[in-house]
Amino acid sequence: MEFLGTLADIILHLDKYLTLLTAQYGIWIYAILFIIIFAETGLVVMPFLPGDSLLFVAGAIAALGEMQLGLLLGLLSAAAVLGNMTNYQIGRYLGPGVFKRENARFLNPAALLKTRAFYARHGGKALIISRFLPLFRTFVPFVAGVGAMHYGRFFFFNLFGAISWVFTLCLAGYWFGNLAWVRENLSLLILGIILLSLLPALFAWILRLWRRRKACP
């Protein structure tokens, strides 16, 4: 519980922590941000790390002249691309072994075939949309690897999604992050970004429940 409380405090007051880290570590802040974005997108056990809010706040700090915007955009885009590539390879390596039990309820060969069919048809859209969804952006590339999505197709949508995600949020922070109203309510805005990014997943879950109840009166 103490860890969760500390993590929540860091996320909600990310501007203060990131400003302190920038002042303390100077140019090494780029490496710190690179590692965080890489881990959040590349390691399936790290979905709790800040992503959207981190990019927004980093952009706002860059607007103050504490970081170079071009370098920030390039390095964090690279981190997001490499993170997904790593996650894909982990899923590709683990997939066949995880889904080999015939009598398993979910992780069976039939489920693996369905996963592969899904990513053959919808993998590109899933990779792009999931970039803007916490938790999902960590798991989708892993499952794409499990489903053996064609690597050339994966790489294209991974690159497009990573650049879209990093540029959108960093530039939003750069252009709007230091407006007086935004600075005074940044904690609420960060919370809003998190909640807004979770809304599509919540809506999909509610819609799935509604369809199940409709199908089984």
Write a structural description.
By secondary structure, the chain is an all-alpha fold. It has one domain. 80% of the residues lie in helices and 0% in strands. The protein has helices at residues 2-12, 14-25, 29-42, 52-63, 69-98, 109-130, 136-146, 151-176, 180-184, 186-215. Helix 5 (69-98) crosses helix 7 (136-146). It is globular. The protein starts with a helix and ends with a helix. The model has no long low-confidence stretch (mean pLDDT 78).
Quick rundown:
By secondary structure, the chain is mainly alpha-helical.
* CA-atom Rg in angstroms: 19 Å
Give the domain tally.
Answer: 1
Order of SSEs? HHHHHHHHHH
Tally of contiguous helical segments: 10
Query: Poorly predicted ranges (pLDDT <50, ≥5 residues)?
Result: none
Overall mean pLDDT score? 78
- Global shape: globular
Sheet/helix structural class: mainly alpha
Number of strands: 0
- How much of the sequence lies in strands comes to under 5%
For the sheet with most strands, the description reads:
none
